[in-house]
Amino acid sequence: MSTNPFPLDKADLMKAYRTMRTIREFEERLHVEFAKGDIPGFVHLYAGEEACATGIMMHLTDVDRIASTHRGHGHCIAKGVDVHEMMAEIYGKATGACRGKGGSMHIADLAKGMMGANGILGAGAPLVCGAGLAAKFRGDGGVGITFIGDGASNQGMVLESMNLAAVWNLPVIFVVENNGYAESTSVDYATAVDSYVDRASGFGLPGVTVDGTDFFAVYEAAGEMIRRAREGGGPALLECKMVRFFGHFEGDAQTYKAKGENDYNREHRDCLKIFAARVRETGVVTAEEFAAVDQEVGALIEDAVASAKAAPLPSARDLTSDVYVAY
Ligand SMILES: Cc1ncc(C[n+]2csc(CCOP(=O)(O)OP(=O)(O)O)c2C)c(N)n1
Ligand SMILES: [Mg+2]
Description:
binds thiamine diphosphate
C-alpha cells in the first residue's frame, strides 16, 4: 500500500490529471483541425498552460465565477463547461455553448460560473470585481477569479480593478498567466517590474509567484488565497510562470522564439509530464491508470469533433436572438 504525500486524495489526483489531459487533447486536436480550414475565426491554444487553470479550478464550485481571456479553452474545461458544446461553439454550430454565435473567444456558461472568454485584453478584471461584489452582498462565500496574460496585465482596467478590489475588500483573485510573450513581444520588454508581486503590493494586495508548470505549486498557492478570500480576507494576486507550446494564434510562424524553444519546453517544462511522473513515482496512481484516462479522453475528443462537424449551423432566424437580455 503506497502512502499519499499529496494534498489531494487519489480521486482528486485522477480528476486533476483528467482535466489537464482533456485540455491538452482538445488543443492538440484543434491545432490539427484548424489547419484544415473548417473552423471560422481565430483560435489561441492553451497547451502547456494546463496546470494553472486546473490547479486553481480544483478549489472552485459553480457558485464561484471566473472571467477568462482570448486563450480560454483551458479555463472553460477546468470550470466544467461541456466539451461537446465547446467544440461545437468553436465550429460555429447551433449546438454550441453560445449557439454558435460566439466562437472560441466568447465561450461562456453562466450556470457553471464561467462568465466568458474575452477578446478584449484585461476586460475580465472589472467583471470579476462585479462578481466579487455580488458574492459579498449575497454572503454565499463565492469568489471571482480573473485570468490575465502578461501583456494584458499592463491594461489600465486591470490596474483600476486591483485598486477597486482592494478598496472594497472583494473576494477576487487576479491570476497573471505569465507565458513570457504578448503576441511576439517579450514580457521583459513590455513590463516594467520583474515580478508581478511588486505590482500587487503597489495596490496593497498580497501576491505570490509560482512555477505554473507545477500543478501542486499552483494548487497550494491558489488554495490559500481562495480560502482567505472566502473568509473575508480580500483580494490577492497569483503569478503563474508558464510556457505556451504553440504560437500566439494558429498560423503564427513564431519567429520571435529561440531556436528549439518549443522542443525544450515540451521535453522539460510539460506540466502534464511533470505531474504524472511525480504522482507515478509515489505509486499512488499507476501508469496503467493514467493510460486508461488518456484513452477515455481521446475517445471524448474524437466524439466531440465528430458531433461538432455533423451539427447544423445556426439559421438566419437565430441572428437576432440572444442579443439583448430582457429585464
Ligand atoms: C485591449 C486589447 N488590446 C490589444 C489586443 C490585441 N491582442 C490580442 S492578444 C494580444 C496579446 C496578449 O498577450 P497576453 O496578455 O500575454 O496573453 P497570451 O496571448 O500570452 O495568453 C494582443 C495585444 C486586444 N485583443 N485587446
Ligand atoms: Mg502572454
